């Protein structure tokens, strides 16, 4: 029976969730099996699919009906690259960065795309954080795949290499805060990654020439309010000092799961004992996130039913051991190579949630205006099953609407992409 269980777990994470045939189970396993499993698989008004086009997003009956599109590197694909809730309370306001397209603002069942061709068209966008409930994200041009860096205008003296952008929720307009030019005198440079701890910013700057590629690392912080800065006045209003690769890697490295927030470990207790996974943990309305690696007690890694073999949603690289930042491979790349599940989590004041790439979502606490679920015990929800080679990558909760990003993956490339809207009143609260 033990061998059979391992065989089933390896080929189907979903079966793992409901497997109860074992006569001998650990305390952790029994605790996990007692969590209610609510399926959101059959559409009775409970969920709606959307897919991305070059113009925006469109509703579709099923993912299988989404028009085929060519696979391209994830840095160039139209996809949700980063998402989070805007307030520490995790209330209605939430946002998602759509790579190569714009920003989606979520407010309960309302959703609005704000496009900006000047910022998004030929740049990779992501790394969404918040300052005073204002979304801030970064953009750069990939040296691996972006052909516009070969244009002579890219190397011109007056060329502005954008870095940090703020999005005004009221006007729905994006404004540059700081350019790479404000941080370095080197030409042909891009800030390809950063980490913000709430006070100090640590950046990786990539400089390309005809003969070599160099990485430099700097720390900086604003002297006045960050949101008042622009590329025109930023240089005179920031304090800057040197960093190094070791410091940058220490802030971006994957940490042991035992160091994860207690709320995450409590929510995933039992499940974490039997499954290998890598999880990004974000604070709602907060700064940069950290990734934690969980190793199952039995030492083997079940593969999710829809697990990808590529770095969809990754923050570095072209599928090699190092990414755009020159740092170690991204958590999703590591998860794929080790046959782990990748997940992302959000910690808000009254609720916590974690979404795994196969569509399993754990939720505990109380959503805005709702009662506490099961007295504070976690609930597991199965999102609609995706076709082979598709994964769930990120999510937000706005009111009682769950928005989960999905995409078609092949190693470091992305094909079709979009999101699904789940009505938690119908799939969750009406059943408990």
Describe the protein.
This protein is mainly beta. Helices cover 13% and strands 38% of the residues. Strands 1-23-22-21-20-18-19-17 form an eight-stranded mixed β-sheet. The two termini are 33 Å apart.
The portion of residues forming beta strands comes to 35-45%
Radius of gyration, CA atoms, in whole angstroms: 21 Å
Percentage of residues in helical conformation: 10-25%
Separation, N- and C-terminal Cα atoms = 33 Å
Number of strands: 26
The global form is globular
Q: In DSSP terms, counting alpha (H) and pi (I) runs of 4 or more, how many helices?
A: 9
Q: Main beta sheet: strand number and arrangement?
A: 8 strands, mixed
What is the structural class? Answer: mainly beta
Averaged pLDDT: 83
Side by side, the strands of the main sheet go: 1-23-22-21-20-18-19-17
Could you list the spans in which at least 5 consecutive residues all have pLDDT below 50? 1-31, 300-322
Main attributes?
mainly beta; globular; 432 residues; 26 strands; disordered N terminus
In summary, what is this structure?
The chain has helices at 2-11, 13-18, 27-33, 117-120, 245-252, 262-267, 271-274, 331-337, 424-427; strands at 37-39, 47-52, 57-60, 72-73, 80-85, 93-98, 102-107, 110-115, 124-131, 134-140, 162-168, 173-179, 189-196, 201-208, 213-222, 238-242, 255-256, 277-283, 290-294, 341-347, 351-356, 360-365, 379-382, 390-398, 401-410, 413-423. It is mostly beta strands and 432 residues long.
Secondary-structure blueprint of this entry?
Blueprint: H1 2-11, H2 13-18, H3 27-33, E1 37-39, E2 47-52, E3 57-60, E4 72-73, E5 80-85, E6 93-98, E7 102-107, E8 110-115, H4 117-120, E9 124-131, E10 134-140, E11 162-168, E12 173-179, E13 189-196, E14 201-208, E15 213-222, E16 238-242, H5 245-252, E17 255-256, H6 262-267, H7 271-274, E18 277-283, E19 290-294, H8 331-337, E20 341-347, E21 351-356, E22 360-365, E23 379-382, E24 390-398, E25 401-410, E26 413-423, H9 424-427
Parallel strand pairs: 1-23, 17-19, 18-20
Antiparallel strand pairs: 2-3, 2-26, 4-26, 5-6, 6-7, 7-8, 9-10, 10-11, 11-12, 13-14, 14-15, 15-16, 18-19, 20-21, 21-22, 22-23, 24-25, 25-26
